[in-house]
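Annex B.
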Amino acid sequence: MDLCQVYKDEIQSLEEEIKLLAEKYEYKRQESISFSDEEISMSINSFQNEFHGQSGGHEFPSDLKAQLESLETDLSFLMKFTGIQFKSHFKKTVEKTRNRTVQKHRLSGNCHSLSFELEFQLLEMQTKESVSAVITDLSIIMGSGEDSDVRNFVSSTEERGNLLTFFRSLSLYAEWYEHRRCTFLHFK
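CENPP protein: predicted structure tokens.
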């Protein structure tokens, strides 16, 4: 009976740890959402000043340099916020006419500890009033460790061609996948 009690105590301890992690996650999530525009601007300016000091002897036109710094700041913020890091990107123009462009894209990266690869075609149609873009031929390959729910989600996303939903869901899933992995490592 003592062994049974030890297991019950361990289970209760793990349940409490999971509850604390869930509360901590929710707190950090709310905290990241509640940053004011001023705090975000101050953070961006701080990063830009830090980057400006490390730029070295390369001279760029001031507009181009400012755009590059702004894009790097935005990318860094998004990578920290979502956990998504891109390793590679390949783009090839397949067809280009006056008002229609078809490009083939291939992306690979990580979201926390999960790896992914995407391949899709982007069809851009331009009219006098607007530009519209449609994703076609989406193919998603997830790294090892995917379960049937992930396969179903990937299949659904490939059919719909909705990359925004994919990245949002991947970010949340990968974060909780990492929490589960750490919890199971506790058993080992």
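Residues 1-31 form one domain. The helical segments are 2-33, 37-53, 62-82, 148-160, 163-187. Further annotation is deferred to the next reporting cycle.
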